[in-house]
Amino acid sequence: MALKVKGQMEALIVLLDTEITIYRELLELARQKQVCIGDAESLQEVESINAREVQLAQVIAKAERERLQVTDNLADRTGNQLAVLSLVEIAETVGAPYDQLLLERRQVISQLLAELKAVNALNKQLLEQELGYIDFSIQLITGNDESKQGYSELGQKQQNSSQRSVLDWKA
Predict the structure, then answer these.
(1) Which of 69, 79, 146, 158 shows its CA 20 to 30 Å from the CA of 37?
(2) What is the model's pTM?
């Protein structure tokens, strides 16, 4: 393998290691956020986690662009269409010693992304439950039950005695 291709493969491995580090941090942040969901006192912590996630997303996008540039350079140097190949296909094309290194990193990235997806799905579900609870609480306090509201035949809004809010009740 030519020296320039060797340098490009090493650069690709470094970029993949960078992505792995970032995905690990994103996973840890998602787990931290999970602990904070439902705790009103953790709002500032959630905001700082979100800000860090945005920063990491920008770093991942930059690393991905660099990775694509490296694969484009590899394609130019080898005469193959590596730029459109997956990591598995690149590993098969370049062979030893880089094939195992690429496949190991691909496996780690796949596992991290699967875990991140699962944690984010659970976070989404927890947030939806929290929002449902908040909505229910607001309806209970204000007496607005959207399912019982409607209009009479003459276009007048129907009045319902059970529509009074908790704040309107006498002790």
Answers:
(1) 146
(2) 0.74
